[in-house]
């Protein structure tokens, strides 16, 4: 037991705090034209996303358009089928991005209009309406 206490494990770098969201974005690489991605989580230094079509390749350089309309450059770090992770070349301000998304959502809610119409009523000219049945 004392040997286990004396054994020194190498320190692992702490992972960034990830914001779990489902956000739409766009990505392109030298090999792939612009395609849609679904961002699953994002941090100041990278993101995890998925795509429907051909995924990027680890080590590939990419340009990603974030939901707040910022474009960042990144390197693909890993790929597992259609899911992949990228590391941003320069860190982003996650707080700023989330504030921008909140403002965009509030603006959309203010500009949204709902129109409620009365139920559709069918008028029939049948003399004996008792034989009609509801479907």
TrEMBL record:
Q: Which stretches make up the PilZ domain?
A: 38-104
Question: What GO annotations for molecular function exist for this entry?
Answer: cyclic-di-GMP binding
Q: Which domain of life is it from?
A: Bacteria
One Pfam family recorded for the sequence: PilZ
* InterPro entries linked: PilZ_domain (IPR009875)
Q: What is this protein called?
A: PilZ domain-containing protein
For this protein's source organism, the top of the classification is: Bacteria, Pseudomonadati, Pseudomonadota, Alphaproteobacteria, Sphingomonadales
